[in-house]
Design brief:
The chain has about 400 residues and is α+β, with helices and mostly antiparallel strands. The protein has 13 helices and 14 strands. It has two domains: about 200 residues, 2-Layer Sandwich (Phosphorylase Kinase, domain 1); about 190 residues, Aminoglycoside 3'-phosphotransferase, Chain: A, domain 2 (Alpha-Beta Complex), CATH 3.90.1200. The protein has an eight-stranded antiparallel beta sheet, sandwiched between helices. It has a three-stranded mixed beta sheet with strand order 7-13-12. A hairpin with a 2-residue loop joins β8 and β9. α7 runs parallel beside α12.
Length: about 400
Amino acid sequence: MSRALKTADDLRRRATYLAEVVDQLYPGTGAGGPARPYIVVPGRRKPRVLIPAADRKVAAAALRRYARPAARGARLKRDAAVWALRLGVDRVLLPHRLKVGGAEGIDDHLASVLGHEVHLSIHIGPARANRKPVLQILDGDATTVAFAKLGVNPLTRELVEAETNATRRLSEFCDLRLLRVPELLHAGNWNGHNLMVTSALPSWEAPADLGTSRRTAAMRELADACGSARSPLGESDYAARLRSRLAALAERGEPDADTLQTAGTTLLDRYAATEFTFGSWHGDWSPWNTRETESAVYLWDLERFETGVPYGFDAAHYRLQDDIVTKGADPTTAVLGLVADASAVLAPMGVTSAEAEPTTLLYLVDLAARYMGDQAERAGAALGALGRWLLPTLLRHIARQRTSPTESTGGQ
């Protein structure tokens, strides 16, 4: 597909998704009831977020808290729009408006749950298998007080349930010292969807870059939060779970599932006698799911949290996502770099050099199984086509290990 066609397809998907989200959150739109005005940011052609338009102060606060773009130019545009909202001259920069209605929208339900007036900012994300309504909740003073997620199909219902359980477990039952996770404020159902509401993280603590060692300390704290154990890979629950996942994908007939199953089984068999340390991982520890401050490391989006996985998965994931998304690296190049630097990436997590490469390759198999299980390619996710970047690199390294198992990957 050409770049122009791909861009056009992405725009079409976003516009379609905008309509889907409005219908999910305000099912009575067009059938009477009070109108709720929203501003479509940056516009209808490529919507990213809906912010409440009835109150300029609330609208400005919603947009300012929505995200911190990585690029300086994007931050300047965001800041200009925030000031335009505060001054009441936003029609030029943000001309697109949308009105929704209905006898009872999601905001009415959330106001009842939280016991106070609420205003919603609605995130419109890019095409992903796990895309779901994510709501930023502000009170009448324009303070962000909570976030909510809705599970609207089998996959997202499963993920919202998983995040609900993980948030409750980590915030209520684990002794976290450096890490901070949101508090679970509500878990229930609304209009046939499962709903979770979590507290907002403190907005007064400014981000602080205190070096990678602090992030590593936080990752190790999470890895140990629910207990850890050391055992041969072949005797671990993780190996059994991964084999089961790979077999299920093959039985389902997913594209490339047989290839992935062969790769994963080869690794599990080859390192069955090798001892690994197993603990917990966030599952998507990335620059956009964490904030480091002077006092703590804040972490959210716990829908992929899992226990009993090899130490180091979070570090490997952070490196790969940072390279691809933040730095714009070619995905194949990013995977090659991760495997080549496996020892350096995982050593701070306490992973030995002998365990580093197999840990990294197991992580890549696990990630591929996630994308495949979520049917990410069918959903239009940018990295969903595993055969174009992840599987060839993975197979190459596994095959090379077969012919020279002790050879270093540093020459890639």
